[in-house]
Amino acid sequence: MKAVRFHEHGDISVLKYEDVGTPKISPDEVLVQVKACALNHLDIFVREGIPGIKIPLPHIGGSDVAGIVAEKGSLVNNVKVGDNVLTAPGIGCGMCQACLEGRDNNCRKYTLIGYLIDGGYAEYVKIPARNAIPIPGKLDFSEAAAIPLVFLTAWHMLVTRAKIRTGETVLIHSAGSGVGSAGIQIAKLFGAHVITTASNEKKLKKAKTLGADETINYVKEDFYASLKNITGRRGVDIVFEHVGSATMEKSILSLAVNGRLVTCGATTGYKANVDLRYVFARQLTIYGSYMGGIGELLEVLKFFPTGQLKPVIDKQFSLQEAARAQLYMTERRQFGKIILNPE
User: What is the pTM of this model?
Assistant: First the structure.
């Protein structure tokens, strides 16, 4: 099969489009013919190398896959050959207490497709059968691939961790990102008032179409100063944080009394200054959030056939153009998801 992989860490020049052996499946696995694979920032981090993490080389990235079941193991009975499926990106051991309770993202052996195991930048990918989920409604492959990681992450952040409530005010950073565009929609689904940020007016207009109530151009304005004006200096109930060093300090200052900050990532850096006086005096809560369980993904998928949630796709590239697609992402030009199509 054809795949894009890297044999060493580095810039986009290390990505090679080459012939690779088709994966061999175990009795409890399925082989999926990849029809679409969505990019995530994780793909960039893995390709560049993550301090302290040993990525098996050569490596195929890509966590979000949609395609057709091409082969199934002898123990598989939840899907059949020919089924259209999307992949739940997280893989637990399936045997520990966390996995058995449906909290597979708390499993000590938890990993992601395309992280420590080969992923979807290929014509075929093998996955545990339990991670193959029928594509809901009338979504096409690209739309289906645009959903799993970002909508699961945003759901776990807002619903499971921060316990969002109707009428609350939420700050969603970086509306143009995949997780940001998902966060806006989920916050509105629960009846929140959404303030969001983006780098230009084009992205802010698109954020409005997703339901954002107030927008801030963080290039032209200090988002914290603008947010104080919007909220009458009260602050917000929830900050949806995934940017990291560039925003964390002011994100905490943006919270109202008893506010909650929930963070799932740090694309601009891991270090942040925190004035602890604000944390204890305002009785703030800071939640860490990492992916979500398969059960949560099944829950969020229910809202796509009804149109209450919608995948957001910015641009599609051929598999051979994976390097261009990653460059496009690092330049922060997209609004929503970037998709690779093997065909």
Answer: 0.96
